[in-house]
Structures are given as structure tokens and as C-alpha cells.
Amino acid sequence: MDSRYGQQKSRIADGFNLVSLNADLPLESLEIAAAHESVYDVGDGARSQQRVAGKVIVATNHIREPSTCKLPRSGLDIAKHVFQVHAIDAEEKVVIRKQLRRGQVMQFFEELPPCLVGLEACATSHYWVRELSKLGHEVRLMPAKDVKAYVKRNKNDAADAEAICEAVRRPTMRFVQVKSAEQQAQLMQHRARDLLMQQRTQLDQRV
């Protein structure tokens, strides 16, 4: 019985390029693969079909391998309380579209592999760049007016995060230099001085 089973396996596989084949695979699975002339890839739970040079490549594995999903880039739309994350995988497919509370942001990015993160430049975005960079992520700031061109639909948090994710990898995108906490503190002093000078001028004009 075993010799007949092996002969039938060899006969079915004859004329095909077998890249990976499980020895314990039932004979029926080989017959189905040969009949449909397709590639069966169940390593990640999905099935795909592909014809290569007129021959069938049969890749079969019953053992589910750990996920190797990588996130090349993500967009983070920041706010006062609710943040929005939009991330894609290597095949440009959306894998994360999620709302986060302020206290959940750092924990969320700690669990992600290092990736490119885009944000719109504002006063608080420099803080998030410094914190996310400590986790190993590459974080870039972009002017909000430049990101606006990539918004596909009505403006909302989800659309903004998607636009940020799309804009951060554009070769012609202009990026904002990240400021340290000391630089922001010094800039705040200059702006406070400018405001006092404006108020003094307004008071002089009223008198």
C-alpha cells in the first residue's frame, strides 16, 4: 500500500516544479494542486493562485508560521484627547486604522516594530517625535498645508491620518526640523515677548 501511494505521488508530481512539499500531505491534496495548476500557500492562512512557466509550483505547509508582517510606514493624527493611527504593510494594504486615547499612544507604538511615522507639524508634535524616536521609530514632521493635498475625502481624523501616511513617503515632500525641549522653551519666550510688544503698541495707539 505504501509503495503504491509513493508511486502515485511521484506520478502526480511528475512534470511540475515542487518548491516545498509536506511528506505527510494526503494524496488528494496533491491531486487537487495538480488539477488546478495553482500555488497553495497556507503558511499565513491565505490561499493564492499563480501559474509559472506553464508548470505548477506546489508549496504546502500545515504548520502555521508566526506572522512576519512589517509596517513600512504609518500616519499619526494627533489631537487633545483622541488620536488616529493609519498604517499599511509592504503591499500597500491597510493593516491598522484605529483610534487611540492619549494615554494609549506610547503603549501602542511600543508594541509595533520600528517603522516610519509621519505627523503634521504643530507645537505639540515635536514632543511626540522625541518620544516615539526613543522607541526606535523614524518620525518625520510635515507642514499641514502640504499634507492637505493628499486628503481624499471630507476632512476628519481618519482621512487626515491616511493622508499623513501617504504624504510621508513622497520624494518631493518638505519636512520640518524637529526642535528639542530647550529650543521650544526659547521660542516660547520670543513669542511671549512679541505678544507683549504688540499689546504695548495697541495700548499706545488707544491713548
Outline:
By secondary structure, this protein is α/β, with parallel strands linked by helices. The chain is built from seven helices and seven strands; from the N terminus they run αβαββββαβαβααα.
What would you note in describing this structure?
The protein has 207 residues and is of the alpha/beta class. It folds into two domains: 2-59, no CATH class; 73-176, 2-Layer Sandwich (Nucleotidyltransferase, domain 5). The protein has helices at residues 2-13, 27-36, 105-110, 125-133, 144-147, 157-167, 181-206, and strands at 17-20, 57-59, 73-77, 82-88, 94-101, 116-120, 138-142. The strands form two sheets. Strands 5-4-3-6-7 form a five-stranded mixed β-sheet, with helices on both faces. Strands 1-2 form a two-stranded parallel sheet. Helix 1 (2-13) runs parallel beside helix 2 (27-36). It starts with a helix and ends with a helix. Mean pLDDT is 74; it is low at 5-69.
Question: What value does the average pLDDT take?
Answer: 74
Lateral strand order in the biggest sheet:
5-4-3-6-7
Low-confidence stretches: 5-69
Describe the main β-sheet briefly.
5 strands, mixed
What structural keywords apply?
207 residues, Nucleotidyltransferase, domain 5, 2 domains, five-stranded mixed sheet, two-stranded parallel sheet, 7 helices, 38% helix
